[in-house]
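thread from #wetlab-drylab

HS: before we spend reagent money on co-crystallization trials with 4'-phosphopantetheine, can we at least see a predicted complex? here's what I'd submit
DV: go for it
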Amino acid sequence: MKRIKAIYPGSFDPPTNGHLDLIERGSKIFDELVVAILRNPEKDPLFSVADRRKMLEAMTSGFDNVSVDTFDGLTVDYALRVEARAILRGIRAISDYEYELQMALMNRKLQPGLETVFMMPAEKYSYLSSRLVREVAQLGGSIECLVPDLVEQKLREKIDVAHKFADRQQSAGKTPAEGKGKFRKKKL
Ligand code: PNS
């Protein structure tokens, strides 16, 4: 019987419970699933690729058929390299569809033998995105239940470091704008 290997590519900055939900669903229909983190030098990520890899490895350690890897260049080239036959992507709402369809069709044009499979995460994650998690965490809101505990802890650590940096900038007489931190200190 043919074994089907799929990749689940993305930025995962940071990985959320929505990602984890999709990984769990994917692990049930594919024989093997590789969570593939894009190494994109043009983006200015909050977490390094190494941090994201560690978080995803910890999050997926309970799945026998899931592994974590990193890649750069075209997703289809990476898929071919690891002999995957499908690309898994999540669709949360209709608003995701247009972009995802565009990517899926472009990937099909580039590599006709590779299929994109869309899956829907649980409804409770339909509004969840890494970007919103970053923003809420940075502005002092609660991200409980939106990300695994480990990711929440890592976010808190980053925020603490950034706040200390902002405090040092302020005591050195610099305005917040002069500091290059990604975090604004929450007003109390
Ligand atoms: O989690 P994201 O940021 O929505 O993931 C987007 C990702 C990484 C899947 C997409 O940007 C991608 O595939 N990038 C790799 C470069 C590539 O293949 N570009 C052509 C896509 S049609």
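DV: The pocket of 4'-phosphopantetheine is lined by residues 9-11, 38, 74-75, 103, 106-107 (CB under 6 Å).
HS: ok that's useful, forwarding to the group
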